[in-house]
Design a protein that fits this description.
This protein has 105 residues and is an alpha+beta fold. Helices cover 20% and strands 17% of the residues. The chain has a 3-stranded mixed sheet with strand order 2-1-3. The chain has a two-stranded antiparallel sheet with strand order 4-5. The relative contact order is 0.17. The mean pLDDT is 82.
């Protein structure tokens, strides 16, 4: 039962204005790696997956520092290093040809 000083409205009476939120998750996996290896914070870095398959692996995330140096999401790891030789490339571990996400963070 709602008190008179703090009335509770039924859900049907609530007015909620629509909201659009943009969450930039492109940098998320890089942030996970930087949490594990903080000595690389502030440096251009990216995360690649399936490094053994094609051209240094496909980039799945990149830092804002790497973007500023010209690295693009569609690059492979080897191309990122051509554009930005100092880029730190983190590799998603693989197990039986699939991403191994069992590592503790």
């Amino acid at each position: 039962m709602a008190s008179s000083s703090n009335p509770t409205l039924p859900v049907s009476n609530l007015k909620i204005d629509p909201m659009i939120a943009l969450i930039d998750m492109d940098c998320f996996y890089v942030q996970v790696e930087l949490r594990l290896q903080p000595q690389f914070r502030g440096l251009p870095s990216c995360v690649v997956q399936y490094k053994t398959r094609n051209k240094g692996g496909g980039i799945i995330a990149l830092s804002y520092e790497a973007r500023a140096k010209g690295v693009k999401r569609f690059h492979h790891g080897d191309e990122a290093r051509e554009v930005c030789p100092e880029v730190k490339i983190f590799v998603v571990p693989e197990l039986n040809g699939k991403a191994d996400l069992t590592r503790q963070v």
